[in-house]
Design a protein that fits this description.
Elements: E1 4-8, H1 16-23, E2 24-28, H2 34-42, E3 48-50, H3 59-64, E4 69-71, H4 82-87, E5 91-93, H5 100-115, H6 118-126, E6 147-151, H7 155-166, E7 170-174, H8 185-188, E8 195-197, H9 200-206, E9 209-212, H10 226-231, E10 237-240, H11 249-257, E11 263-266, E12 285-287, H12 296-314
Parallel strand pairs: 1-2, 1-3, 3-4, 4-5, 6-7, 6-9, 7-8, 9-10, 10-11, 11-12
Helix pairs in contact: 1-12, 5-7
Bound molecules: glyoxylic acid.
Glyoxylic acid is lined by residues 53, 74-76, 99, 292-293.
């Protein structure tokens, strides 16, 4: 019987490599360019690829791919044309749930950091400017009592809602902006009666904080554009732990520079790993390098799930965490 062959495009934590090595031969790369990925995926040398969200599998590549499956090391799978994969009999898997709490924690880190000017404050201190406590020093926005608008109340959005309620925030949400569908109390579970569903326009205009938890689709690309930024409160803070292209990053740079909104906390960027021109210079942009799920437990859980998906795919079985078109 021929052995299964797995390609991991960037090093992942244990138990991922061990699970794969128990099931076959494993090649682990240190990141791959689009050309290197194309060559590997079309070579017929691998049964299953375990990529990162930065590895793109478009319809053209999938049409030539000689693989059985793609076990994405991520919950999001906007890097894969899932319909095209299905057309070519290539299974797709992801790593849901295991990173909900970590990503919600990152969301609160960004929300608090942007509201309370953590980046500016830290720079101020390190530059030796701190001469003692000052009543007017680095004053930020209120959090307790403020309204958080959650765009997309899925698994991560709900985990954020629980945290925000713990901080004494008022939580409103739009389920699937820009359109919406009513969410029942059953679906809200223990959040029923504690959060309010509002139309997208109302959320934009009444929120003190807007946090994005939508998948990247055609409908959500540039969901936050110049018009939305202009309609937000001038004291508002925007938080993005979802996907960069949900925000028009150039428009955001202008809005932050012109103080149309107070601040932004971003973990994801429109053209990762590049930042829009001017973004890195803004004191009111609190920025992290896509570390939303970067907690030990989440990352090893993701590695286990992606590896289990990959092994099932190699055996021609339905992966346990399958993504359907
Ligand atoms: C990270 O961005 C993920 O989708 O898991």
């Amino acid at each position: 019987m021929s052995t299964h062959r797995f390609l991991v495009t960037r090093e992942i934590p244990e138990p991922g490599p061990s699970i794969l090595k128990d099931a076959g031969d494993v090649v682990i790369k240190d990141g791959m360019s689009a050309d290197e990925l194309r060559e590997a995926v079309t070579s017929g040398e691998y049964d299953v690829v375990l990529p990162q969200v930065s590895d793109t599998f478009d319809a053209e590549l999938l049409a030539q791919a000689k693989i059985r499956g793609i076990a994405n090391y991520a919950v999001g799978y906007n890097n894969i044309d899932v319909a095209a994969a299905a057309d070519h009999g290539i299974a797709v898997g992801n790593t849901p749930d295991v990173l909900n709490e970590a990503t919600a924690n990152t969301t609160m880190l960004l929300l608090l950091g942007a509201a309370r000017r953590a980046y500016e404050a830290s720079e101020y201190l390190r530059e030796g400017k701190f001469t003692g406590l000052g009543p007017n020093l680095l004053v930020g926005q209120d959090i307790t009592g403020a309204t958080l608008g959650i765009a997309g109340l899925g698994r991560i959005g709900k985990a954020v809602a629980h945290r925000a309620l713990g901080f004494g925030m008022n939580v409103i949400f739009t389920q699937r902006p820009p359109e919406d569908r009513p969410v029942s109390d059953d679906e809200l579970g223990d959040l029923a009666g504690r959060v309010s569903q509002v139309p997208w326009d109302e959320l934009i205009e009444t929120s003190d904080y807007i946090s994005l938890h939508v998948p990247l689709t055609e409908d959500t690309t540039h969901l936050i554009d110049a018009d939305v930024l202009q309609r937000m409160k001038s004291t508002a803070v925007l938080v993005n732990t979802a996907r960069g292209p949900v925000v028009d990053e150039n428009a955001l740079v202008r809005a932050l520079r012109d103080r149309e909104i107070f601040a932004a906390g971003l973990d994801v960027f429109e053209n990762e790993p590049q930042l829009a021109e001017g973004l890195a210079e803004l004191p009111n942009a609190f920025l992290l390098p896509h570390v939303g799920s970067a907690e030990v437990g989440s990352r090893s859980g993701m590695a286990r799930m992606a590896a289990e998906n990959a092994v099932a795919m190699a055996h021609g079985e339905t992966p346990p965490y399958e993504v359907m078109p």
